[in-house]
């Protein structure tokens, strides 16, 4: 089956920032993303778990599949939002079906 | 003094407080007891809806008096003003950075609705009436403190972000909308509306509050465990001194505007309590450099249990003393 | 006419309707108020169980009369037939494609159990009795409309998938099984069973309904915001005309088979209401080319609020008028 | 004998049992009816809190008698001892490996709190009083069986892991902490505390139990479907014989220590029931080589429904016969 | 530690299609998969969020680790289900422990 | 934007083992991880779904981004925990922003 080269970007970010991130991505020309819930994690700012939260706390994972040539614009946009916050950004080489969607 | 302890004693052996203690102990002992996030959120929606609705019905029954506007005004003044006092205290008592101090200050200007609900329950148990619109005062006190804190940071040259978008988010955050909305529904439908749904929002209220406080205990306990060593003794002292300071100011304002005994106690509780829902989320956006485990631990791990156990009885005793004097 | 408005007026100031309005406004104002998915699903399970159980108890108490079978038959006829009318109306009033029109038509042949529950509550508030087995009629009306819609698509040469597996899924979907199952349990255990659990399924019912409608308001409001511009004026008009057409047919059938006033109103409500739970899921599988935001917005964003606020009082007034005539 | 069947008959047409049956049938028919995990967990927290609290209140009301300590002791003996009997039976009746047999044995030494709750409800329905502290006996019986099972495995040379960390986890698992904690709160606050929250923990209890058993039925049904062919006839026979053996031993011990009729029945039910919450999680850590679908299917798919429908009435009849003799 | 070459396929698909997809995968010889919940997302058919759903709506992410030689069969099976529906399919090169499991 | 080479390790493991795994990872020098909920899945030990669970059952997915040179230590640690249990481990080449975090 015909596949097309793409990048898979995964951004783990604080839930209160979610909408700001997706807005920034959309402005950077990203045509789609998927948001996954996160149960807990650990990093430089310590351990946390969704159970230990009240209100709109915790983190989410935003996954973006994009054409390689759009990667830089996406990373710039994401970085502007993530910069001062806790969270991580990772990129993987991927392939996608139905390239017209990206 | 003995009276306060007697009061605190009866207060302490209520199922509500003991449920909180159970959660706290379970978390400190690292039990895997947890209340699912969705259930906890469902309970908090229930509590906000019920407390708002009952407040609205009370206003529709007893009518609006001039004290209402004064109380709303007092709430605004307190929420804008208390962060300034908190900030000054924090800079004196602790080594927190300006940003951290401002973030903590925002929490103490805002309110904890669960503390308010627990105080209401306690007053009801003692048959002390309070103005129904204190719920509305609670609602107006949620947000202004955030502005004061951001102003404190901006003044010191550090940038704190207050985009209009954030402003909208804060004012329309779920708790405020639900509280105010349920208040309006209660005020519109009145006693008749209450009769229709009282088997849901009145009778089981205290029981739900128990389970909710069990969860708050679990969360507070886990927070305390994880933040061991983060807080100095000065910060912990602040988290006990500040409620007392806030309550004193609330007492003064409450007497000034002529609230009933119950109303005064509730205004004291609002002043004394610290937010741990709306404000933390706003701080993550507006002051991301501030350390969340500092403000969450102080507000939820120290001030909340203090108010729940000793604070509320102290405020009641003080109000009774002042009213009697 | 004034009577309808008076009726609508009292209907509108009930906590139930106001809760829906609160949700709608909150969503339109982009508040972040949300009810967790699990809690919403829990409430809908509660409502289905309670309404089914009470229906079963009513049947066990008053016995099965010949009208029962006729009513079930009427429900089947309506659910199979209404989509054909809806499809014709849609092709006249809107520019929707055949597939989209068929998908929308399926929704209007099926039913909204929450609208049914709200109507039941309203009748109870007015002390108007209704046949307990109308719940069973509601259950049989859930699925047939889907078959009609698929037939409409197949007829037009476009392929719509109705695998036997999908058929099983539709007939055994959670809402139907729970409604019918609870009905059976109620019928078997009768008044004795009801006495055991009425503190759970009767007393708090209306209060839970308030919170559930708050959520429906939030969902409808968010849907309306996101689908701005998707719908033409013709489609919106359809979403108001179709319920009136459906209710009129329901009125005729209800009188024909000799239902009580309350029963007639409920049959009208079932005919007038549109599904937004079972049918959308089935359409995603059977007619994936149909645009979900069209049918969800019409059914949940227009018809549901219309029925809840104006529709139900209109149907009651019409039924009273026809019964009196 | 006819008496047992009459008893079982009335037992079977209760909303509680029928709700379980509905769930079982829905799952076997592959309906997509599901109760969200969070809601199910919320209900189990409610049930544990309510049953613990009421037990504590009962103790505070009637006082502690010497039988209390004896009952706790009996619970410990049963929980340590029953796995040895279960293991022996399993090795005789089935071809299960030593590890699988030990894992199953652990489940039958421990208890099912929902079976206990259902028995309590049934006794209340028949106005048969029981010692309030049987809840505490239930709590102490949760964990020891795990130790016995690990000892059985260790003895046979195969290694089973009992790290101190696992020990702590088992003893402080959520159900035990909540049950014991609520028991303590009930004992401390007594009738006064109960009065405050009885509209939450007493009145709606049976209704919540219905929905919870609906979910248990769904889970048991899905488990049975998925494990088709995994179990031999011997294993299924064990899952029915073992409860009868356990109940008989419970009966003897209960009479020996002088429990009331209700208390004896509850001790029998505890002995007869098998865990499906705490023990499976512990087994995944301590005996990962054991096959979870074996022990879950036996405990939840066979023994649980058996106890719920036939077991409890049999135990009651046996206790009444023995007490009469 | 010994690792083995594999492909990681991630399919974001509407929840009502989940069982159809996993059946198709199983028939195509896939021996395992993991299903993750999705909170929301955006694509050609617009934005959506789990909060705005009633009933069995929303999407799920199905993750499949397979031997490279089975990729084509998997993609064909997945594509047959996903084709007319909203959703995306992405493939990444991966390595797995315990090859005997795949 | 400057990115750095890393490995993305994804471990699907039984929920009761979660804390044991994260402890082992931390001891192996892993500085961060993210835990995602899992709805269901299928593998050698059959199908399961979160709906069919009572208590602390089910599985979670633990995602770890690490420097390549730490991969072996991580895999050894993970394998010791996962070994006797059901579950899978997969590794992908990735890139990350803000290398100082890993
Ligand atoms: N190395 C990592 N691998 C995977 N997730 C990470 C990693 N580091 C941090 N995270 C996630 O990002 C969150 C914030 O990380 P930090 O900003 O380092 O505190 C953590 O709670 C984790 O959920
Ligand atoms: N480029 C993308 N990256 C990640 N997820 C996507 C992307 N495009 C679409 N999706 C997901 O697939 C769903 C349906 O996409 P679509 O079919 O384009 O409407 C979206 O709601 C997202 O969850
Ligand atoms: N090939 C695979 N791809 C993705 N996930 C898998 C795969 N095999 C197993 N899993 C996951 O790991 C769990 C346990 O697998 P197993 O140990 O093979 O029973 C399954 O329920 C899935 O969630
Ligand atoms: Na305050
Ligand atoms: Na209809
Ligand atoms: Na037992």
Features:
heterohexamer; A: 102 residues; alpha+beta; Alpha-Beta Plaits; four-stranded antiparallel sheet; two-stranded antiparallel sheet; 2 helices; B: 325 residues; Na+/H+ antiporter like fold; 15 helices; 0% strand; binds adenosine monophosphate; binds sodium ion; N-reg_PII/ATP_PRibTrfase_C (chains A, E, F); enzyme regulator activity (chains A, E, F); Nitrogen regulatory protein P-II (chains A, E, F); N-reg_PII-like_a/b (chains A, E, F)
How would you concisely characterize the structure shown here?
Chain A is an alpha+beta fold and 102 residues long.
Describe the SSE topology.
The complex is a heterohexamer, with three copies of chain A (102 residues) and three copies of chain B (325 residues).
Chain A: E1 4-14, H1 18-27, E2 33-37, E3 40-43, E4 46-49, E5 59-66, H2 71-82, E6 87-96
Antiparallel strand pairs in A: 1-5, 1-6, 2-5, 3-4
Chain B: H1 2-12, H2 15-28, H3 37-62, H4 66-93, H5 98-109, H6 113-125, H7 134-141, H8 144-155, H9 164-171, H10 174-201, H11 205-226, H12 233-256, H13 261-272, H14 278-286, H15 292-324
Helix pairs in contact in B: 1-15, 2-11, 3-10, 3-11, 4-5, 4-7, 4-8, 4-12, 5-8, 5-15, 6-13, 7-10, 7-13, 11-15, 12-13, 12-15, 13-15
Strand order of the largest sheet of chain A: 2-5-1-6
CATH architecture of chain A: 2-Layer Sandwich
The largest β sheet of chain A comes out as:
4 strands, antiparallel
The CATH topology assignment of chain B is Na+/H+ antiporter like fold
Identify low-pLDDT runs of chain A: none
Order of helices and strands of chain A: EHEEEEHE
Q: Percent of residues of chain B in helical segments?
A: over 70%
Named once each, the bound ligands are: adenosine monophosphate, sodium ion
